[in-house]
Amino acid sequence: MEARVTLSKQELSELKRAKMLLENPGLAARLSSMLGSPIERGMAMLPARFQTTVHKASEAAMMKALDVAVRSLGEQGVDTRPSKDRAHKFAAAASGAVGGAFGLLALSVELPVSTTIMLRSIADIAKSEGENVQHIDTRLACLTVFALGGRSESDNAAESGYFAARVAMASAVSEAAKYLAEKGMSKAGAPALVRLVSLISARFGIVVSEKAAAQAIPIIGAASGALINTLFIEHFQNTARGHFIVRRLEKIHGTDPVKRAYQQL
Description:
Layout: H1 9-22, H2 27-35, H3 39-45, H4 50-72, H5 85-102, H6 107-128, H7 136-148, H8 161-183, H9 191-216, H10 222-253, H11 255-264
Helix pairs in contact: 1-10, 2-9, 3-9, 4-6, 4-7, 4-9, 5-6, 5-10, 6-7, 6-10, 7-8, 7-9, 7-10, 8-9, 9-10, 10-11
């Protein structure tokens, strides 16, 4: 019979915080609350071929993020000092101001920039939770935060969206980690990497669509574009914090006990 593992009161408090961050209202709800307009209104204003633009921009942003994650994500392996969330928000706001000023035309240029800023912030959060960003496993965990921050219709409603998303990504992450460990980024078009990027960008694109829809509402300009990007990066910072709290507890107690405790909260 499997032994029951009990998390301490402090660990359960941390897990409760993680769940609150991971299962909180999505970006669309927060944007609608801020703007006083439902995101559906913005969606209705977007060109018919907009989803194709989002798909291409999201895939390009994820491929750029993968390259950054593998080649240059942090010189220090472990650094548990507090993450610099506010500094990264300022940087994201600056790129959002450009996006707000030029609208949808800037998406293909602005998105890779803001995604790279967010990836740096995610890695910073990972380090603050005790992760070693020199390990390929941690770097891919940083990258998959972009998938965990966007829900897919295929997610299993019978269990937590967070864990369903992790299960959906597990095989692709494992294959990509094995490939990168053996061959690095010598061939960015390798099937293992293309599959991972495709899975992440499909989920990431949902959130990108919501962001772009908000920027399509007529009242949005450079200033509001900066505010939208601040909420955009905050959304993924919250996801990253929750994800790496869960990973830290899993390293202590194992995946199944933490998952059970998470679902019972």
